[in-house]
Amino acid sequence: MTEFQIPPESLTNLKDKVVLITGSTSGIGKVTVHLCLSLGAKVIAGDVNPFPEDFLPLLCEQRQEILSSSLLFVKTDVTDWTSLRNLFISGEKRFGRI
């Protein structure tokens, strides 16, 4: 099986974009949240489970402020329309767009 890789330089246009990710607290979703944040995107993260405590390691206070202004987590069940709709509404309210 051939491994598929996306070169990081092809994702630089994510800076200042608002990205919505479901299934965001584990596996590919968690890695995608981390990647988007590292590239300067704002992230609306939805999942039925919260992020594990080790996801956001203790960082300097300034970095934590930047991160908290760039990441919104909303508990979301994607099988429930009201829950999913709330994710979009919360994200739009926080960042003004998706």
TrEMBL record:
Q: Which keywords annotate this record?
A: Oxidoreductase
**Designated name of the protein:** NAD(P)-binding protein
- The source organism is Aspergillus cavernicola
Instruction: Cite the InterPro entries for this sequence.
Output: NAD(P)-bd_dom_sf (IPR036291), SDR_fam (IPR002347)
* Pfam families per UniProt: adh_short
Q: Which family does it belong to?
A: Belongs to the short-chain dehydrogenases/reductases (SDR) family.
Q: Which domain of life is it from?
A: Eukaryota
